[in-house]
Write a structure and sequence with these properties.
By secondary structure, this protein is an alpha+beta fold. Helix content is 33%, strand content 18%. The longest helix has 15 residues, at 34-48. It is globular. Residues 1-8 have low confidence and may be disordered.
Length: 613
Amino acid sequence: MSTQTSSQQRTLEDIHHDSLELARSSDAIIPFMDEEVVRLEEESANFESGELDNAVFTPSRLRQGVYGQRQPDVQMIRVKIPGGILTPEAMEGLGEVSDKYAPLGKGHITTRENVQFHHIPLAQCPEVLRLLGATGLTTREACGNTVRNVVGSPYAGVDPDEVFDPTPYLAAYVRFGVRHPITQGFPRKFKSAFTGTDARDHVSAAIQDLTYVSQVRVVDGVEQRGFKVFCGGGTSIMPRLAKPLYEFVSTDDYLRVALAIWTVFNNADMLRKNRMMARLKVLIDRIGLDEFRDMVDAELEKIGPIDPAPYMEIDELLRETSPVAPAPNGVGASEEFHKWRETNVEAQRQEGYYAVMVKPERGNLDGPQFRAIADIMRRYTGGRARATQEQNLVLRYIPEGYLYNVWEELDRIGLAEADARAITNVVSCPGTDSCKLGITSSMGLAKALRDEMDEWGGELLDDQGVKDIRIKMSGCPNGCGLHHIANIGFHGAALKGPDGQQVPAYELFLGGNYGDNRVEDSRIGTRIPRVKVPAKAAPGVLKTIVTYYKEHRADESEKFNQFLERVGLEELTEVAIAAEESAKAADPGSDMYVDWERTNLYKLERGEGECAV
């Protein structure tokens, strides 16, 4: 079979040059290029007719953000949203895709600030890509062995602790990297993040391949901006925390450093021998950080100056026009409003303005919700929203007098739930709902855990120490749900019941850490060894763990991780073992053999995913 398409192939250098030129005049961070959709149409037709090898078509399709699903003949479309920044027009476009093309009628916010749509037939994918392009969105390099979506803080530009807003530098990094010849066929995917402060971590900085943290130093009396650079983080079966590569890299040099790191990674032939062990963390683990730094330094000697200024122009995208502040409203409002304000609203550094956390159920928004949020953005905010790694949204520049109006509108569409940052904000990947690599229904467990917590009552759920616990889960060991860095994390597994049949289960991680801490304080949770908790027993195990913590902590100021450090994991390991034993004692064919939100008996069916293609 042929390995070429019928379209005229331009060089990667030409495409990258045109992309950079388009970026100079584009309001979007990543400019849309219709020729890529034309190519996808041609390649799809050639693939369907058998004229194009799957080995050629799949990597090309992935670079366009179109990903194969667990279900045959349908695709997942991943919308790449640098920094998580969304305009009202983009929000409406996401709503239109939900209504017209997504069979489930919804989009899903991911832990990389993307939005995904599932079950889209391949033939409809070009239509969706064009619709998204018309609203300033793109899927370019949201999948594949490329620079994936670049994560930014949802509070960038408004955080009182921010050293400086790195968003323009994030935009330049994205524009410089997308369609770059060296980033099109990495050994594996490459994940990056920018954050303006080391006081709070909203970007999971320590599990990225490359993270830039804003820094300022004074040289000869002159203030100089730059970044502390971390490299080599990642999760999956070999979790690693990123290490500080450089203490300070000036903003004049940070793109040179990025290109040097990309080059070292791209040239690492040892990584291409096994796609499952081809991440940057593996290279650094094998050769050591010092040798890796020497290799980056050697590449830097070959790279001339790279001025980020031409690629930083995103003034229109960053323009948040603060609405005129009305008189205070909602003073005599309901208890629900006041609780929502207390837990979901945060004062910005701009006096009189607030940022609001919106908590969709399991990260999902339907078409009417997308459009209603767009309307809220236009009427009551500065006109921009940010997706978060917690699968939420942040609305910004809301005057105090409009907070009640925003709550009312969110309540009308089912998005005014309080405690958006609390234990009930369970984070999950899609699991077996759509992912080929999924082992368990992690989304089903997320709902089950939430239902369990709804039954706890105020004494347990309103306790501040309990509220501060973070729960995350993944349907397999790969870690898309970020379970490694949760206080309580679960990843999908399977165990055998008394009849030898499989039972859906989870491995348990305790004591992970990130968030209100410095990057260096992040921690991978400890996996409870040789124990698998049946999926149907997980909610009970969660309650036991949380109750044990509340009843045995030294005092109310002792956080969950501090408690674990003091008492150890022995008691909680016994809880997990008891849960595993319950599966071994279960009657064959009982509910223990059925996964959450499923009706059939469980069977481990794991396909070959496209993350390593």
